[in-house]
Amino acid sequence: MKHVLITGATSGIGQSLALSYASAGHHVYACGRNEEKLTALVRQYENITPLSFDITDKTQVKAACANINEIDIVILNAGDCLYMDDPLHFDSERFEFIINTNLVSMGAMLEQLLPKLAPTNRQNTENPQLVFISSSASLLPFPKAQAYGASKAGVDYLANSLALDLAKHRIDVCLVHPGFIKTPLTDKNTFDMPFLMSSEEAADRIIEGITKRKRYLQFPKRLTVFLHLLSSLPARCWQSFASKRLS
């Protein structure tokens, strides 16, 4: 049995991950703000410990993590998405909210959880794992996604940089780039979402990658590989296409 902490566990990918790990007999720390949804998870599996707090509030993060003694896997999944509708009237409050929710909040989580992941403080001899759920949106600039894309690009750099520094401490880092996943966030989208996957299928892919100790995980590859190819084109080519077809 492993101890798995998941942020954003009350909906979407996070909820599917929590249920999958719990059904496999692991102890899950399910983190979220919605106490009612957390209680519903506990009703399904007694091996789920609910942690209700706001990830953007350092005081709440510290209090929620205080009684956690050992973790094998931390999955930083919580996030939000709001689009910037008018570039000439840039909404700084919306931008700040998304950056804080998707990126800055990870600093508070890491401050509390990295010492608990350290092998010197653990009984399990396997390397602990730190997983960042980013987005394939960080691979290319998309219209109206200045806040969301910037936050996920920051998550990418944070994960890749920490992977270098944590290697000597025997903490394995995995960066995850999902494509379009059917969640309450994507339900609000009004544009086409090719290769849309369920959150359950996404959770299965992520758990498989974690089990195999993947350093980088992307899916569905039909989409992410195509985005990687597009990112190698001259910027003007993508700008012309995106401004005409995606705006």
TrEMBL record:
UniProt KW keywords: Oxidoreductase
Keyword Transport: no
Ranges in a coiled coil: none
A UniProt-annotated Pfam family: adh_short
PROSITE patterns recorded: ADH_SHORT
UniProt similarity note: Belongs to the short-chain dehydrogenases/reductases (SDR) family.
Protein name according to UniProt: Short-chain dehydrogenase
Species assigned in the record: Thalassotalea eurytherma
